[in-house]
Specification:
Elements lengths: L1 H17 L6 H25 L8 E9 L4 E7 L3 H17 L8 H20 L3 H10 L1 H11 L4 H30 L16 H18 L4
Antiparallel strand pairs: 1-2
Helix pairs in contact: 1-2, 1-4, 2-3, 2-4, 3-4, 4-5, 4-6, 5-7, 6-7, 7-8
Length: 222
């Protein structure tokens, strides 16, 4: 159920780049819109099966990946993440529909929007800290290119500044995740809300501070 939410925008993005049948900007836009609407409709299908009275994670999927690193393909959704997935797919539809039809390099532009959707959905659904980090960093690639190519008058400066800020925040977040697993003695990066209970108050505050700085930059709060 959840993996389909990831495959729809990813496959759509690849098709936009390599399918020669899409020639005009309007054709490319409508194809991208169709893909985004398909993803939104699939979230509606999941919503009808979602148990809003259950507080835990639902529709969980787990596949072994790099077990030696503690990295697994582990996705799920709950009452907090699922509405955000719906909102992300809705905003993707709006962004594609409202884009200028005369935009330059439309195939690349709309494929980046779909790739961005893929990264955001993956971050919301991840239940493995390393997998979450990977998805979070993947979404920065299309964001950087969208700013650098289709941004305003100072898009080069803005894109470079964006890259530097996100690199710093990524180091802070990854360092916090590694510290949490190492200090708690956990054997994998699977999301476990009670991991921090085994840490001292000082350790918790240091890791929390790094996470606040990292996510504060990425959101961005500043």
């Amino acid at each position: 159920m959840l993996s389909t939410l990831l495959w729809i925008p990813l496959v759509g993005s690849v098709i936009l780049i390599f399918w020669p049948g899409l020639q005009t900007a309007r054709q490319v836009q409508w194809f991208a819109l169709l893909v985004s609407i398909l993803g939104l409709l699939w979230t509606v299908v999941i919503a009808f099966q979602f148990d809003f009275a259950f507080a835990g994670s639902q529709f969980q999927e787990r596949l072994p990946w790099l077990e030696t690193l503690g990295l697994q393909y582990q996705v799920g959704t709950d009452g907090l993440s699922f509405p955000l997935v719906v909102l992300n797919n809705l905003l993707t539809c709006i962004a594609i529909y409202s884009s200028d039809q005369t935009i330059e390099r439309p195939r690349f532009y709309y494929s980046l929007l779909l790739l961005l959707n893929f990264g955001v959905v993956g971050a919301f659904l991840s239940e493995n800290l390393l997998l979450f980090f990977l998805f979070y960093e993947i979404e920065l690639i299309p964001l950087y290119l969208l700013i650098a190519i289709w941004g305003g008058a100072r898009r080069g400066y803005a894109a470079t500044k964006f890259l530097i800020y996100t690199a710093v925040s990524g180091i802070a977040i990854l360092g916090s995740f590694l510290g949490l697993i190492w200090l708690s003695g956990a054997d994998s990066f699977a999301f476990q809300p009670d991991l921090a209970k085994s840490l001292s108050l000082t350790q918790q505050l240091i890791l929390l501070g790094a996470l606040l700085v990292g996510f504060g930059i990425k959101i961005p709060l500043v």
